Amino acid sequence: MTPAGGGRAARALARVNLAAIERNTAKLVRASPRLCAVLKADAYGHGAVESARAVLAGGARVLAVATSAEAAELRAAGVAAPIIVLGALTRRELVEALAAGAEVVAWTDALLDWVREEGGGRVHVKLDTGMGRLGTRDGALADRFVTRVLATDSLELAGVMTHFATADEPDMRFLEEQLARFSSWLDALRDQHGPIPAHAENSAALLGAGRARFDMARCGVALYGLDPFGVDARARDLEPALELVSWVAALKPCAAGESAGYGRRFVASKATLLGIIPVGYADGVRRVISPGGEVAVRGRRRPLAGTISMDSLAIDLGEDPVAIGDEAVLIGGAGEARVSAEEVARWAGTINYEVTCALSPRVPRHYHRDGEALDA
User: Fold this and answer.
1) pLDDT single digits (tens) 359-370
2) pLDDT tens across 258-292, in order?
3) How far apart are CA 158 and CA 33, in angstroms?
4) From CA 163, how far away is CA 54, in angstroms rounded?
5) Residue 127 half-sphere exposure, CB side, CA atoms within 13 Å?
6) pTM for the whole thing?
7) Which of 40, 248, 311, 357 is least surrounded, with the fewest CB atoms within 10 Å of its CB?
8) Which residues have a catalytic role annotated?
């Protein structure tokens, strides 16, 4: 990648392999034939519209987003698949969601009133079995919401749901408690009302169990080749879909005792050469990973030198041969070297979800299928 960029952005670029997303989806579909693909937060930073097309090609049957605006974006792009808006909605947002033909999640009488007053729609009733966020913890109240939806002509019960809090952790005891609570509630509902679609599993729960226990799984992070357990995506036969790259914009000799970056957190112990990379925390490269993080150049990983700035960072090259214009890989592979989103997350003390979601809008996304460019 040269400074001119060959028609592409020179500062930084996120390369997204849609074929990898499609193959990851197909793997998950084998475990849950009716798969709901979660595309919230711009498909975890990968691009919602393009990712929607890839997951549908991979066999996903339903899409899910967090906000009404995200649903509207997909519809405006011509995406016709069923969409569930998972998040809380104001009255105005509910109108936008219904106008997009989206299904919504309910756990209060007020929201059911709004849906009815706005002409009706498809509703998922949410029982909180232990996540402690949205949904009602009261099984009897959730029963009443289900009964109300079934008794109201303008409302349609699309399903019932819960969400797991610890499916990505080694200790399965709380997950089993949540499963038992949801299963017991669901069995009683079905005894009273007959077949009712249910969904609960996220990526970790589905991959951990190897198959869906309920009618549909809602998977997000695994679609994009990120390990829901935060260890190694490739060990779980998932293909990371996103690479974040920049380039070496300057080479700066640094004598022993000279420093680099705000706060002089890097002071050279001996003469070295620094590479200046024009990407920083405003692009989503977390400041907290310095020191400790690494960037791959010419097939080798090089340590960060000093504090990451808003628009740039430095790497310590030592005596390695590097040229201005060489590609710098912050997430992805460079020859024999690879930097995974899971590693970046560990350096930052966070999760891989946050690493890709944090990529800012000023980083262009370049879409391809196994290296074949799709952009004009």
Assistant:
1) 999 999 999 999
2) 999 999 999 999 999 999 999 999 999 999 998 89
3) 17
4) 25
5) 26
6) 0.94
7) 311
8) 40, 262
Please state the three-class secondary structure of 345-371 as a single string. Answer: HHHHCCCHHHHHHCCCCCCCEEEEECC
For residue 76, give the nearest of 87, 84, 68, 86 by alpha carbon: 68
349 burial class (0-12, 13-18, 19+ CB within 10 angstroms)?
A: exposed
Identify residue 258 by its one-letter amino acid code.
E
Q: Of 376, 75, 94, 359, whose CA–CA distance to 242 is shortest? A: 359
114 to 82, 95, 150: CA distances (angstroms):
21, 9, 16
Query: Could you tell me which of 246, 228, 249, 245 has the C-alpha nearest to residue 237?
Result: 228
**Which residues are paired to 286 by β-bridges?**
none
Length of the chain: 376
Token pair belonging to 160: 């019932």
